[in-house]
Each structure stands twice: as structure tokens, then as C-alpha cells.
Design brief:
Helix content: 10-25%
Structural class: mainly beta
Number of strands: 27
Strand content: 35-45%
Strand order of the largest sheet: 14-15-16-17-18-19-20
């Protein structure tokens, strides 16, 4: 039997969620949990549907601080406490553009607004943000609020990228442009629509890991795992391929799930690929995918190159495998802040719609299942959400069904996205297994402290 507990008292039919797996959602004392609240999770966010911003106190009560238009269900509004303080920063629409606001959770008031958004923030208040309008247009985790991508016609713009700003003194700087990333050790004429996503600070807060993604002329997309110093120095590319979720295992190691150095990547870097027309490449890719799918459905065993990899963030990059034969599928990892031998993770729904929450201890190569959680079968009404996809690039929508795109962007699609408390005693996760969306906690101190 699962031993999780609902961390929020549900009132008036509300749903509660946090978002992604890459930041802690509690304050340092562990008595306030940043959260978002909404009644309707059946459709993706739209520009006219705002979401409540607040925190859950020690009595499991949601305390509302304000509202935001800058949220999505997978990553929330990037709400997080700043360092040792009880100041909560959250993204919002500020003067017609994506920015951020800082709330004082002691006195329940807004204390400042900023023209720049935040994705991650240091203990000293240095915030690092992304171009969420571009992310939304390209089908990534952006915000739907009527803010258009100013550089939609530029494959790799030089005026947007990773922007650093200090929430206390207002200083700001573009530390890395998309153009700089696109020009870094990348062959010409193979890509378009470059963007940067998934910023994660290293434990010592000296470097940032991120994903550089770009569209290819065969209709696919390639990902590069990259790092850069928080001042904009020392750009590195650690791996290229089909790369997914990741976290820092230490100040010098990053764990990521995916595939790299495969035949697909080698072909895409070849002279033949550059010479072939897009139409032929696109058709060929569809035939290959159809063949693989047919064999998979027929029960054929394929030699998958997908695995959990460890890369060192150094000039001479080393590679190893994290959990060969132990963790065999993609999920959302986060390493324990006080003991990085331990990782919390989940996986995607199995054929019965069940997700698993588990701990992994790297030194012992052991996996501990904490619980399993059922998704629900409800689906959004596509006809009601056309305004939620109006600014999405048409090529993105053509890659799959609109129905599936809308579902994965709605609150009905609920990955667990587990996250640690700062002292390592508890993890929390979003789930929908009780028929509504809420935030649940699991005491893991018995494992971490032994």
C-alpha cells in the first residue's frame, strides 16, 4: 500500500500543483510549500485564464498571494523561494511581456515586479530566465498569454537566450544568446528554429546546465546537453542526440536519459544528409518510424541505445552509465540536496496508465519503489481550446495529433515530477490518482538517514 499523504486540504473543488522536478518547492525551514491553484485542469492554459499563486502552510492550508498568467502544467510558473528567505518569486505577465513578481509570504504582499522572467534563481537572488514566447511557439514549455515570439523569423536570434537579472538590485545581462549557442561547434545548414530550455543550476551555483534544441529538415529535432558559467563564461557541449530529462549529480557530473552517437545522429551530420532535399528526408523518416513501430507492436526485441548516462562537466568530458539494467526507462530525476548518492525519480505510465515513484541509491545500485499512481482517462475537449494553440508553430502541430498535444499540455496529463525537501527528509510530487490534481508528500528519512 502506498504511504504518501496529501499535503493540501482540498476546498471548493480546487486543484493544486507545483510543476517540474528540477527545483525544491519548499522554503529552507520546510514549513511553506510553493503551489498553484486552479479549478479547471481540463484544458491547457489560455491568456484569459489566470491561476492562483500561493503557498501551503504547516496546517495544509493554501494561502493565496496573487494570480498569474505565466504558467503551464508541466513546469508551473517556476515559483520558488529565494535562498534562506521566505520571499517567493513567480513568473507573470508584466507590462505586456513575460516577467516575474516577488511576494513576501510573511506579510502576504507583493513587494516587486520585474520585466524579466525566472527559470532558476541562486541563493543570492540572481535569476536566470528564458524566452517563453519562443518556447511556446516551438511547442516547448512556454506560456500562452498572447505574447508573440519577436524573433519568429530568425532561426537563431542574437538578442534573446539566457538572461540573468538580480531581483534585489535590478542589474541584468544577456549571458548567452541563442545565436552564440547555434554557432558553437555545430555544422551549418542542418537546422532551424533554435531554442534554449531546461536551465538547472549546479549544486555550487557556479554553472548552469541546459538543453539546446533545434529543428531539422527531416521534421525531427536534435538536443544538445550544454553548460555555461553563471557569468556567461566557459560554454561546453557535453553530448548531442535524443536527450531528455537530467539533473546534476555533483558539481562536476550530470545525469541524463537518452541516446547519443547513434546511427541517426551520424547520418544527420553527414554530407549526404546536407545534400538530400527535405521532402525525401521527411518521407524516409516516416517510413522508418512506421517500420520500427510495426516491429515493436509485433513483439520484436530491438537493440535500444537509450540509457541513463553520466557526463562530466569538464574540458575533457568523460562518459559512463548510471544504472545499467536497474533503471531502464525515461523519468524525471532529482538528486537529494544533502546526500547526492540518492535520487528520486518517476517513470511514464505503463499500458495500464500507472506511474511509479521510486528512490535510487547510486553507490548500491538499488531501486526502491515507493508507490504507484493511476492516471485518469478524462480527455480535454479540443473544440474549446483552439485559443490555447493559436501561437504554436503549425509545423509543431503537424508532428502529431492536435488532440494529443492538447492533452499533454492540460492538467489532466500529470507526471509525478518528484522533488526533494532541502533537508532530504521528504519528497513531494504532483498526482491525479484520486480524480483531481494535488500535491502529495512521502517521508523518505528512513532511507536517507540509514
Amino acid at each position: 500500500m502506498n504511504r504518501e499523504k496529501n499535503l493540501v486540504k482540498r476546498t471548493d473543488g480546487f486543484n493544486y500543483f507545483f510543476g517540474f522536478h528540477d527545483i525544491c518547492c519548499w522554503n529552507r525551514k520546510g514549513d511553506r510549500l510553493a503551489a498553484l491553484r486552479t479549478k479547471d485542469i481540463t484544458t491547457p492554459p489560455a491568456h484569459h485564464i489566470r491561476c492562483d499563486v500561493g503557498f501551503v502552510n504547516a496546517d495544509r492550508e493554501f494561502i493565496k498571494l496573487g494570480e498569474t498568467a505565466a504558467y503551464n502544467y508541466p513546469q508551473g510558473a517556476r515559483q520558488q523561494f529565494i535562498g534562506e528567505t521566505d520571499l517567493l518569486i513567480v513568473n507573470d505577465l508584466v507590462d505586456g511581456q513575460w516577467g516575474s513578481r516577488v511576494y513576501d509570504t510573511d506579510h502576504l504582499r507583493l513587494i516587486s515586479s520585474h520585466q524579466f522572467p525566472v527559470h532558476v534563481i541562486s541563493r543570492e537572488g540572481e535569476a536566470f530566465g528564458l524566452d517563453y514566447a519562443r518556447l511556446f511557439r516551438l511547442g516547448a514549455y512556454g506560456y500562452n498569454g498572447g505574447v508573440k515570439d519577436q524573433y519568429a523569423n530568425i532561426p537563431a536570434p542574437d538578442r534573446t537566450g539566457i538572461l540573468r537579472h538580480n531581483v534585489f538590485n535590478g542589474a541584468s545581462k544577456l549571458i548567452l544568446s541563442i545565436k552564440e549557442v547555434a554557432n558553437f561547434h555545430l555544422k551549418e545548414n542542418i537546422s532551424s528554429n533554435h531554442y534554449i530550455t531546461h536551465l538547472v543550476l549546479s549544486p555550487d551555483e557556479k554553472r548552469i546546465a541546459f538543453l539546446h534544441r533545434f529543428k531539422l529538415k527531416d521534421g525531427g529535432e536534435t538536443t544538445r546537453l550544454m553548460t555555461i558559467g553563471t557569468g556567461g563564461e566557459g560554454l561546453r557541449c557535453l553530448a548531442t542526440g535524443f536527450l531528455s530529462h537530467f539533473d546534476w549529480k555533483s558539481d562536476k557530473e550530470i545525469v541524463i536519459y537518452g541516446r547519443f552517437k547513434s546511427g541517426v545522429e551520424k547520418f544527420r551530420n553527414s554530407l549526404l544528409y546536407k545534400m538530400l532535399p527535405s521532402g525525401m528526408l521527411y518521407s524516409g523518416k516516416r517510413l522508418i518510424k512506421q517500420f520500427v513501430l510495426q516491429n515493436k507492436n509485433a513483439g520484436a526485441v530491438t537493440n535500444s541505445l537509450f540509457d541513463w548516462h553520466i557526463f562530466t562537466d569538464e574540458e575533457k568530458i568523460a562518459h559512463s552509465f548510471m544504472a545499467p539494467g536497474v533503471i531502464t526507462e525515461d523519468g524525471h530525476p532529482m538528486f537529494c540536496p544533502v546526500n547526492r548518492d540518492w535520487m528520486i525519480c518517476d517513470n511514464y505510465p505503463d499500458k495500464n496508465g500507472v506511474r511509479a515513484l521510486f528512490l535510487f541509491q547510486h553507490s548500491m545500485q538499488r531501486k526502491i519503489i515507493l508507490g504507484t499512481y493511476q492516471m485518469i482517462n478524462a480527455r480535454p475537449d479540443v473544440h474549446k481550446v483552439m485559443d490555447a494553440i493559436g501561437l504554436v508553430d503549425k509545423a509543431v502541430l503537424k508532428k502529431g495529433s492536435v488532440e494529443e498535444f492538447v492533452f499533454t499540455r492540460s492538467g489532466l496529463h500529470c507526471d509525478l515530477h518528484p522533488r526533494w525537501m532541502f533537508d532530504g527528509s521528504m519528497v513531494c510530487f504532483d498526482s491525479i490518482h484520486e480524480g483531481y490534481r494535488s500535491i502529495y508528500g512521502y517521508d523518505v528519512s528512513q532511507f536517507i538517514n540509514n
